[in-house]
UniProtKB/TrEMBL annotation:
Domain CBS: 8-65, 73-131
Protein name, per record: CBS domain-containing protein
Entry-linked InterPro entries: CBS_dom, CBS_dom_sf, Diverse_CBS-Domain
Annotated organism of origin: Streptomyces hebeiensis
PROSITE patterns assigned to the protein according to its UniProt record, in alphabetical order: CBS
Signal peptide: none
Length: 138
């Protein structure tokens, strides 16, 4: 079974917790990704900012993205996966926390992101369907 390290997208960039959401949206756009980890000034992971967060929690609530920080959207402790955890553990973590992206941690360092698409490519077809179903139901 492949590990997170084997199936992740390496070289993940962070958005700083004190960056405004407008800057974060521009970074998401320029990188062509759907989410960025939120990192604090201490270089610790604070959460993950998604394009959906920007639309629902900022624009949809009438907040000004130039005056809302990425850190304001971080929700408690970030859900992560260890670099050497296998696809079954990634599957279980995504299902349990109902997330589609997981930051990959090696020790205390962020080394990449693993997405639902990464897992789908790495897992047998029945498990992929189970994961999609788990993440798609309310």
């Amino acid at each position: 079974m492949p590990t997170a390290r084997a199936i992740m997208s390496p070289g993940t960039e962070c958005v700083a917790a004190d960056d405004n959401v407008l800057e974060a949206a521009r970074k998401i756009t320029s990188l062509g990704v759907g989410a960025l980890p939120i990192c604090g000034t201490d270089n610790k992971l604070k959460g993950v900012l998604t394009d959906r967060d920007i639309v629902v929690k900022v624009l949809g609530k009438g907040k000004d993205p130039a005056h809302t920080t990425a850190g304001e959207l971080a929700q408690g402790e970030a859900v992560t996966i260890g670099a050497d955890d296998d696809a079954d553990e990634i599957f279980a973590t995504m299902s349990r926390h109902r997330v589609r992206r997981l930051p990959v941690i090696d020790g205390h360092s962020l080394i990449g992101m693993v997405t639902l698409a990464d897992v789908a490519r790495a897992m047998p077809d029945p498990q992929t369907g189970d994961l999609l179903e788990a993440l798609s139901t309310d």
